[in-house]
Amino acid sequence: MNQFPEEQFRPDESQGNTGLGSESNEESGQAAEEPVGTSSQPAPQPTLESGKIWENRTTKEILYGISKAKKSDYAVLRLASHDINIDGELLISKGSTVNGARLLLEEGSVEGYPAMKALLKITDGTYSLLDYSATQANAMHLEQGLKVRINNLLTSLPHLPETLEELNEGAAVAKMRSFNPSELESQPEESVKTKPLRGKGEAPPQVETAEEALQRTMPVAVIITIVVIVLAIIATIVVISFKPTIHQP
Q1: Which helix (H) or strand (E) holds 18?
Q2: How would you classify the pairing of strands 125-131 and 148-149?
């Protein structure tokens, strides 16, 4: 009876280890294939300015500063009272026009002119001006077509009228009252009085003397005299040639 060495019946430890290693490699491969999570929140917008709303820095003065500085072509002005009862935002285009407004409430939101009127009534709170020029799509929810000129708001603040129509009418009346007709009447007088001055290096106008005028006109006079004499001679010759002959008896 043949006897086989015990080594032939021992399990191959290297093969077993290889199998375990392959399983661990598969598990690690599956873990490596899992996507890495990324944040879905958009990047914050650049803040152009921010500060406090109080008696020395009212919403009227804030709008005036925005219209003068014109730091952004497409910006959102966020306003909030200290008690957070009034919280919202205005969409400002070209630093001169309010295109939309939204007032945030617990039960929802208010948009349009009523929201803008409530936000600009804040007397104690905070504000921040955010630049949306590079990401205008993120502020499209505020595009409402209000097209309220900041100059009209500055004329009426702090007491804005009840409706947008009254605001526009009041601005038109104020513009007509500020018109001074005397300005148009004085403009022609100023244009008549104002005469262009001769340049510093410009030569004075040349004045012609009598002698120069005589020398300039003498050749013309001589030519005219010669022409008259020639015509007289020709006329005399013609008369003599055609004079009839008188025969005496």
Answers
A1: helix 13-33
A2: unpaired
| Model pTM score | 0.55
Tokens 């015509």, residue located: 231
The SS3 of residue 209 is coil
d(CA 172, CA 167) in angstroms, rounded, equals 9
Residue indicated by tokens 């002005």: 77
* The two structure tokens encoding residue 12: 């191959």
Question: How far is 171 from 183, CA to CA, in rounded Å?
Answer: 21
DSSP 3-state assignment of 7?
Answer: helix
Which tokens sit at 81? 């009272």
For the chain, the structural domain boundaries read 47-175
Tally Cβ neighbours within 10 Å of residue 3.
5
- Report the chain's terminal Cα–Cα distance, integer Å: 203
pLDDT in tens, 167-194: 988 766 766 665 555 554 555 555 545 5
Angle at 140 between CA 135 and CA 146, to 5 degrees: 130
